[in-house]
Design goal:
The structure is a homodimer. Chain A is an alpha/beta fold and about 325 residues long. Chain A contains 15 helices and ten strands. In chain A, helix 9 links the parallel strand 7 and strand 8. In chain A, helix 1 crosses helix 8, helix 8 crosses helix 9 and helix 9 packs across helix 11. The first copy, chain A, is globular, with a radius of gyration of 18 Å. The interface between A and B is medium-sized, with 22 and 22 residues.
């Protein structure tokens, strides 16, 4: 069963006491640069620094008592892991997080700070999945996939639900695409709550599995994602979000690494906020396709803000 | 004539169409660290990136037609210069800005981008004043001092006016002190609008002229301010703000450079916002005096966000 709009509304009610209602910011400088009216939903200000706490909290709160006792487990390059760790801590249950060794330090620290048990694995989906299976066999924890999970998709959809409640005049809403959980949930919310809004996916060119899959209308994988957007470096989208995306998303655009870094620097310098590279892809696709967005009311979901500030700043021009 | 509360209310009405009503953010992580309830007024999101646009706009809009024709002039390490340039551009009049050669590049670029005519001078108040006098002799422009000016003080006071309208339960409001324009205006707003709120000044130890003057109850200057808070590196406060501060400010606290850098990193990393070093002094004095602020509702004015991101990030631990 795919999640539907009721699942998103229920998720919103369930998670509201545990998350921030994040602000929507505007920037006259970026409006002038893009010739569009941009509205930025700041999930970088969200609890645990990213939208992922929405899906993780919805999943943790949806477990039965019996499931909850044994805890939750997942694999994650960082944001979902930290989010699941925090959500589990809030319910007072164990969290077992499998992280690739090359995860950003700031994300490793965040997961540890929320009291989760970390198991490191080799980068790549195969290494992650094998390791998490071992952890689950040992602990009996419930696996909460970072995006291929109905509770998670419904939880991520609440970003869109909140956004549409605040801004009901969006012509376009741009959502970064990694595994597809966020855009699947948001596109479901869009169809029910703001059907006139075109939902557009934004993806790094170097990890364009979603772009290719969307075009081919079947799930395709790419061998080795090449992007510094660690949150979007997926080889293949989830099988649960994919049909939802096919049905409700208008298009997926890609942007080069160079444009993504430029977009990131623009957001930091002009908006004075810190977002992670994955969050800048939405602005990057506007910079690469100005005519499509010109004079439109465009929503952008700034997915998170957990970065190694020093490492990012050295890449700025 | 010192400005009074009516001047602040009038300034608010005058400048409202030209400025942002900036958001007040909170951070559960920083509340936990400080054991206080912190409310951050984000003037880093303000037009031209700092609160200075308030005073500059109030000054420019208060000029007679005849004065306005010949433009405005000032000396500034950056934020006031950029603000005056933008305010002048909005009224369509010339702006002549004298900047020390060691001003941050980002601030030089901002002033230039607003179409002002820049004259560079040697760092230090003497060099600035001599140069601006020459510029005024040549152009007939009206001198708008960055802080020793009634219009400017009334304009800066609107930050406090706005803050108290949104949060009427502040026990303490911390304001960074450079030349004294901001804290003078805000303390006037406080006395009228929130008399139970203690106004506290925050100053770098290496530029503690305000701390010394406040204690001695007379204006004292220090020879060579040593602080990386470029906006607060003043040798002596203004003669107009000083008596207002003496009358309305509860205390001035200082903080070391090391604590200021720690506070800056905390704000960037935990709140995901970019503020300039001068804005972090308020949090720094809380970190150095935890007992004074414990369990209190504390407002902090994040004065601005115009920084060289790379240069700051390299100083982070």
């Amino acid at each position: 069963m795919h999640p539907n709009f009721d699942d998103i509304k229920n998720a919103a009610t369930r998670i509201n006491p545990f998350i921030h209602h994040t602000p929507v910011l505007t920037s006259s400088v970026l409006n002038a640069i893009t010739q569009a009216n941009l509205f930025f939903k700041c999930e970088n200000f969200q609890k645990a620094g990213a939208f992922k706490i929405r899906g993780a909290t919805n999943a943790v709160l949806s477990l039965t008592e019996r499931q909850a006792e044994k805890g939750v487990a997942t694999h994650s390059s960082g944001n979902h892991g930290a989010a699941l760790a925090l959500a589990a801590k809030r319910r007072g249950i164990p969290a077992y997080i499998v992280m690739p060794t090359n995860s950003p330090e700031v994300k490793k620290r965040a997961v540890a700070a929320y009291g989760a048990e970390i198991t490191y694995c080799e980068p790549g989906l195969a290494g992650r999945e094998a390791t998490v299976e071992k952890v689950i066999a040992k602990t009996g924890a419930t696996f909460i996939h970072p995006y291929n999970n109905e509770w998670v998709i419904a939880g991520q959809g609440t970003v869109g639900y909140e956004f549409f409640q605040e801004k009901n005049s969006l012509d376009i809403l741009i959502v970064p695409v990694g595994g597809g959980g966020l855009i699947a949930g948001v596109s479901l919310a869009g169809r029910a709550f703001s059907p006139q809004t075109k939902i557009i996916g934004a993806e790094p060119k170097g990890a364009d599995d979603a772009y290719r899959s969307f075009k081919a209308k079947k799930l395709l994988s790419i061998p080795a994602p090449q992007t510094f957007c660690d949150g979007l470096a997926t080889s293949v989208m989830g099988s649960i979000p994919f049909p939802i995306i096919l049905e409700n998303v208008h298009a997926i655009f890609t942007a080069s690494e160079e444009t993504i870094i430029n977009a990131l620097q623009l957001i930091w310098e002009r908006m004075k906020i810190i977002v992670e590279p994955s969050a800048a892809v939405s602005l990057a696709i506007i910079l690469e396709n100005p005519d499509f967005f010109k004079d439109k009311n465009v929503g952008l979901i700034l997915s998170g803000g957990n970065v190694d500030i020093k490492a990012i700043a050295t890449r700025f021009s």
